[in-house]
Automatic annotation (TrEMBL):
It holds the Pfam family Zn_Ribbon_1. It comes from the Bacteria. InterPro entries: Ribosomal_eL40_sf (IPR038587), Zinc_ribbon_dom (IPR026870). This is Zinc-ribbon domain-containing protein. Residues 8-29 form the Zinc-ribbon domain.
Length: 43
C-alpha cells in the first residue's frame, strides 16, 4: 500500500518515507520498487 506522501511498512504498517530503505518503527527492510531506474535499450 502506498500514498503520495510515502508508503507503509510491509511488516508493521508504519508510515514511511517513499524512499525509505528500512522501517523506522520495526527496522524491516522495504522493497525499493519506487526507486527503480527507467530501463533503457542502450547497449
Ligand atoms: Zn515496520
Amino acid at each position: 500500500m502506498k500514498t503520495e506522501k510515502g508508503k507503509f511498512c510491509t511488516n508493521c504498517g508504519a508510515l514511511l518515507s517513499k524512499d525509505a530503505k528500512f522501517c523506522t518503527n520495526c527496522g524491516a527492510k522495504q522493497p525499493e520498487d519506487d526507486v527503480e531506474p527507467a530501463k533503457t535499450t542502450s547497449a
